[in-house]
Amino acid sequence: MIDKKLMRKLWEDFVYRGHLNRSIKPEIQEAWLRSREYGVNPHVRSGTQILTSEGLAKLQQHNHELICISLPLMENLYSFVKGSGFLVILCDENGYLMKTLGDEETFELANRIKFIEGASWSEEAMGANAIGTCIAMDGPIQVWASEHYTEACHPWTCSAAPIHDSEGEIIGILNISGPVEKVHPHTLGMVVSTAAAIEKQLQIIEKTRGNAVMKSLLEATTDTLSEGMIIIDTAGKILKTNEILHRIIDKKEHELAGKDISEVFDNRFFKEISSSKANVVDKEIKLKISGSEGQVGVLITSKGIFQHKKKIGKLLTIKEIHRVRQMINEFSGNQAKVTFRDIVGESEKIRKVELEAIAAARSDSNVLLTGESGTGKDIFAQAIHNESDRRYKPFIAINCGGIPRDLLGSELFGYEDGAFTGARRGGTPGKFELAEGGTIFLDEIGEMSLEMQVLLLRVLQDKEVVRIGGYKVVPVNVRIIAATNKNLQEEVEKGNFREDLFFRLNVIPITLPPLRERCDDIPRLAEYFIEKLAMRIGRSPLKVKSAFYETLQQYEWPGNVRELQNILERAIVKCTGKMLGPEDLPADLFADSQTATEKELPMKDEIKRQALVQSIKLCDGNYSRAARHLGVSRSTLYRQMEKYGVR
Q: Residue 172: CA atoms inside 13 Å, Cβ hemisphere, count?
């Protein structure tokens, strides 16, 4: 180490003549050059930048955690130098003194040069010194005597080391300052060790805080899951559960934590789960909670938890079956989309039917919709469901005539694993289970086989189903809306339909009128369909000639509303202009309407009436044959019958 007097001479050579001797430590040379560049006065006798009491309080509050963590370690460091005239000082990253410990006599010397809490000892303020130069070089350094740039510090020896955060950024400086005569290289080592200990303590606290945050995040995440969760150790002891599970089984976390899982649940599955090595995926069971008579239908999945390839526990997820089915129904489109507001028509007959259907929706009784094909029975079924208390539950439609007889049973009632060749592994629920709480729409019920009618009757009577190939009874709560274009009373008389099932279904009968009996609604229906179809096809809005509607009203519509839709779509595609007219309609429809408008029965009123009556009698009440017999369309025949009071 350079002699104190020689160091003073080297300092004077630089301050007065700008000469830097090579024997000076390189880091001190660089610090002196920076100090001159900053314009620091080397002859100052005390600190020049000092915070107000309010500013110091704010600084200490901002660095409260660093001070609290550092203070015990600073006290430990001070215990080694106590009584030797040293100060232990904690500074912020900008060189402001925040906390000092030391001997009383040394404090008095420090006060004389304003080396106090709130003072800045950065290189910009005081030139080269242990605190400021430590910040500038981001490393530990010892500065003594005239190595300091300002004369205020020449009587001191100072050792400083930086304190870093987890990102490697300087957040503080630890410094020991004392009489220049007490300089010793070990002093710097003590400071470096203590600074490292502070950094380690900061890392531990940050890691602990991170673990706490992660724990909170994991707990929040598990509580937002849509399924129950249980974590058990290898002995079957419950370690963690979530809020969903607490709701499913109606138990609190403190009632479950630390207990053996087989004590909480009575199912055999849980008695074997700890020793079982295999994972389980969506196993369906009736969850039996110990001490409770209630059971909950659930799907359970179990998966091993491993650490360093060693199994340390299992994760069980529990999904309520009714919620799973609700999700399936939403994704598969098992929802009614139509309401009574969507039904187009203002005629007296359709309004009467709507009022009957609305009244039916307010009850929970079975409904039987009858009427010709294409009259909108499926539309009314959806509207009834959406007007009922079951509107937020599934609406599942099944066409009894569109599914092969052998498959209808499995569609309605489901089947167990291995029930038949090709059965899905694990089995599958039927429509009745999937519709739990909602509505099943059985379209074309008249086409159902007698064997299936027996099974359906049993479901309606007992309110429960048994899957094909199974034995477990599954309670079901569904409403039945059935529909047919047949006369079920006649089918009963013919032996094609069970009378007891007919009575079960025919609680609220609603008959939908054919389109020919609500001719006044045809323009409104046509206008509605034209707008929708043109948009779907990609056509710009079309105008419609009045003759177009008149022609539609003259047709008898054997296919009802469904036929009207098809013919309108054909007309829109055929139309090359921006206005629909009779010429865009199919030729046979146009010809029929011309016949209807041009042909009149060539008789006086009474004669006409008698002719109508005779023709209908000759044709055994078959109106189509009677119309052909008279050479007119069916629609003309109906109008004439209404005009002359023929029934």
A: 31
Beta-bridge mates of residue 429:
414
Looking at residue 367, what is its pLDDT?
95
Question: Which among 601, 623, 598 is positioned nearest to 610, based on CA atoms?
Answer: 601
Equal CATH topology for 4-206 and 225-321 = yes
What CA–CA distance (Å, rounded) separates 40 from 364? 93
| Cα angle 402, 408, 414; round to 5 | 140
Domain boundaries, the chain: 4-206, 225-321, 333-513, 516-593, 605-644
In this prediction, residue 241 carries a pLDDT of: 86
The distance from CA 130 to its chain's CA centroid, rounded to whole angstroms, is 57
Q: Which CATH homologous superfamily contains domain 225-321?
A: PAS domain (3.30.450.20)
How far apart are alpha carbons 396 and 330 in whole angstroms? 11
Which CATH number is associated with domain 333-513? 3.40.50.300
Q: Spell out the CATH class of 4-206.
A: alpha beta
Q: How far is 372 from 560, CA to CA, in rounded Å?
A: 8
Structure tokens at 498: 């069970």
Q: How far apart are CA 392 and CA 379, in angstroms?
A: 17
- Residue 499 is predicted with a pLDDT of 94
d(Cα 109, Cα 138) in Å, to the nearest integer?
Answer: 28
634-643: per-residue pLDDT in tens?
767 777 777 7
What's the CA gap between 490 and 647, in Å, rounded?
21
SS3 301: strand
Topology given in CATH for the domain delimited by 605-644: Arc Repressor Mutant, subunit A (1.10.10)
* 516-593: CATH class: mainly alpha
Alpha-carbon distance values, 518 to 339, 346, 505, 512 (Å)? 20, 9, 27, 11
Beta strand 87-92 with 156-164 is unpaired
- Measure CA 73 to chain center: 49
560 touches 514 (CB < 8 A): yes
Q: Are 499 and 488 in contact (CB under 8 A)?
A: no
In angstroms, rounded to a whole number, what is the distance separating the alpha carbons of residues 274 and 262?
9
Contact of 319 with 227, CB cutoff 8 Å:
yes
**DSSP secondary structure, 442-481, as one string:** EETGGGS-HHHHHHHHHHHHHSEEE-BT---EEE---EEE
Task: Report how far apart, in Å, the C-alpha atoms of 613 and of each of 466, 516, 626, 628, 641 are.
Answer: 55, 20, 9, 14, 9
Q: Can you give the pLDDT at residue 577?
A: 85
Measured distance between the N- and C-terminal CA atoms of the chain, rounded to whole angstroms: 131
Q: Is 218 left (phi over 0), alpha (psi -120 to 50) or beta?
A: alpha
Is the pTM for the entire model greater than 0.85? no
Q: What is the 3-state secondary structure (H, E, C) of 511-560?
A: ECCCHHHCHHHHHHHHHHHHHHHHHHHCCCCCEECHHHHHHHHHCCCCCH
DSSP 3-state of 303: strand
User: Do the Cβ atoms of 137 and 167 come closer than 8 Å?
Assistant: no
CB 70 within 8 A of CB 172: yes
- Cβ atoms of 116 and 161 within 8 Å: the answer is no
Phi, psi (deg, nearest 5) at residue 61 = -65, -40
> So what's the pLDDT on residue 59?
96
Give pLDDT < 50 ranges for the chain.
331-333, 594-604
Residue 232 to residue 258: CA distance in whole angstroms: 9
**Rounded distance between C-alpha atoms, residue 31 and residue 149, angstroms:** 8
What's the rounded Cα separation, in Å, for the pair 47 and 53? 16
